[in-house]
């Protein structure tokens, strides 16, 4: 039996969706001996039925009866593409399929609810589903998910090299990976005693604010910079749609902060909030004002206790252990009734 895993290519190099799939596949192929089924992001409607059929035949060319296929979804090529891919896979006898749900498009973007039913149909064609969180699983069940075997992810990994000879320093700064265009709340940052460090460029709205603009950073440089700068990593949104979605999904941004070795700031509805509190990985607050106040009141000793706890936890994230455990558990559960 060979385990195969689909992997997305062809999106922008800054795409978090592609980065997450590539990361999972690298761990799966290099450490668990899975086989990559590479697929590309492209305008599927440009394919004739015969051309799409041939393209999919190439993707699954290494598949044999009795194998396991992990479909990382969404492929971002649409549900028609995913259904046709499943048709091809189901053409082989005794093949088992795992849907690894990274995101649910219907709940990410305005006006996309119409695709939900088709995605539920994709998931229900699989033998096991990896869902981001318990909250996501419950909502999917409410909307028609019937697959009996479901396991929850809870955390992303983030393999990256970090200089662990020193801990992040205690500084009253808040790091935020995001841009003002998408996360409008940063434009209202008014804390004089706590600096906001933002991966954006200043187009004028930052004048007079305690904000440092560092622009886009590649992954390794960003993690290294946050490790050297210290402070906290902020996971936040005040956009109603995105705030609601953040209650359901697993944030890649959260694991980026933890991989850098810095404590995090999250809301109580964040799915990982209980773990963050229990393992002293950061602050759980109800508002940005509360976050700023807690950072202002933080002592070096309190911060040191947190970064020690974060460094302990980060070894799992940097080492890919959440992914290895998740994929191994998924395959195990397929065959262990």
TrEMBL record:
SUPFAM superfamilies: UDP-Glycosyltransferase/glycogen phosphorylase. Keywords: Glycosyltransferase, Nucleotide-binding, Transferase. The keyword Nucleotide-binding applies. Pathway: Protein modification; protein glycosylation. The keyword Glycosyltransferase applies. GO terms for molecular function: nucleotide binding; UDP-glucosyltransferase activity. UDP binds at residues 16, 182, 251-256. Residues 174-330 form the Glucosyltransferase 3-like C-terminal domain. Its EC number is 2.4.1.-. Residues 3-154 form the Glucosyltransferase 3-like N-terminal domain. Coiled coil: none annotated. Belongs to the Gtf3 glucosyltransferase family. Homotetramer; a dimer of dimers. Dimerizes via the C-terminus; dimerization is required for tetramer formation. Binds protein substrate via an exposed loop in the N-terminus. Required for polymorphic O-glycosylation of the serine-rich repeat protein in this bacteria. Catalyzes the second step in glycosylation by transferring a sugar from a UDP-activated sugar to the terminal GlcNAc moiety of the 3-O-(N-acetyl-alpha-D-glucosaminyl)-L-seryl-[protein] resulting from the first glycosylation step. This is Glucosyltransferase 3. It comes from Ligilactobacillus agilis. The gene is gtf3.
